[in-house]
Specification:
CATH architecture: Alpha-Beta Complex
Shape: globular
Number of helices: 6
Strand order of the largest sheet: 3-4-2-1-5-11-6
CATH superfamily: Spore Coat Polysaccharide Biosynthesis Protein SpsA, Chain A
Order of helices and strands: EHEHEEHEHEEEEEHEH
Number of strands: 11
Number of domains: 1
Distance between the termini: 30 Å
Strand content: 15-25%
Radius of gyration: 18 Å
Largest sheet: 7 strands, mixed
Structural class: alpha/beta
Length: 249
């Protein structure tokens, strides 16, 4: 049995990135995941554009994948903020359920994700995956993350290697493998690749995992929410540092 993963994608005025991310997700090999799209009160018609994509009326243009018209339209459930108390993500509409949550305002990265985390946890998933909307995933990324996490009960948070979308025409340059903390040197935290560009991708223990693609094991991890006092930035570092220290809330 494949563990259940709830993937959370936060959108704010970024529907083009979001639908490319979604298209890549629905091409992956992993069979047991749901997606929660959280819109932080976008003003660019994001919801309408996402609807058009899900209904098969708007194609994705991407250099990383070919648009698949055969799996459209997608079934989905949509909720406005006043209905969040009623959302039950254990009752879906398809094998891989898709939910759209519409926030009444821009709550920032931390609280925007926390709203979806709270809803996702109601159905007791094995993992919560935070995924930036401006990412494109490889077909086996979730299989690899789950395999690593399941091998060791001490592993609470895992993340994939993240590559630049386009760095002077290249797509094979790592932007983040994982992070280290050294408070003696400003700003106190670093991507490992910034500190040592020769580091090779692999299973590395680290101080923090990027919130751009962070998978949290709900069974063992006592902290499941981001620090909402941080509107944008360092939420991932704050969570991981506290987990390593043994902080429980």
């Amino acid at each position: 049995m494949n563990p259940k993963v709830k993937i959370i994608i936060l959108n704010w005025n970024g529907w083009e990135d979001t639908i490319e991310c979604l298209e890549s997700l629905y091409l992956i090999d992993y069979p047991n995941f749901d997606v929660l799209i959280v819109d932080n009160d976008s003003k660019d018609d994001s919801i309408d554009k996402i609807h058009m994509y899900l209904d098969g009326k708007l194609e994705v243009e991407s250099k990383f994948l070919s648009y698949n018209p055969d799996n459209k339209p997608f079934k989905y459930l949509e909720y406005s903020e006043d209905r969040y108390p009623q959302v039950d993500t254990s009752e879906g509409v398809d094998a891989k359920n898709l939910y759209i949550l519409k926030n009444n305002e821009n709550y920032g990265f931390a609280e925007g994700n926390n709203i979806a985390i709270k809803i996702a946890l109601r159905s007791n998933p094995d993992y919560i995956m935070l995924l930036n909307n401006d990412t494109v995933v490889e077909h086996d990324f979730l299989n690899k993350l789950v395999d690593v996490a399941e091998e060791d009960d001490e592993v609470g948070v895992v993340g994939p290697v993240i590559y630049y979308y386009d760095l002077e025409g290249r797509t094979d340059v790592p932007s983040n493998i994982c992070g280290i903390v050294n408070i003696k040197h400003y700003p106190g935290y670093y991507d490992i690749v910034d500190k040592d560009p020769t580091v090779k991708p692999g299973n590395l223990e680290c101080d923090w995992v990027s919130g751009a693609a962070m998978m949290i094991k709900t069974r063992e991890v006592p902290i499941k929410y981001l620090n909402n006092q941080l509107f944008f930035g360092n939420e991932d570092i704050d969570m991981c540092i506290n987990l390593k220290k043994g902080v429980t809330k």
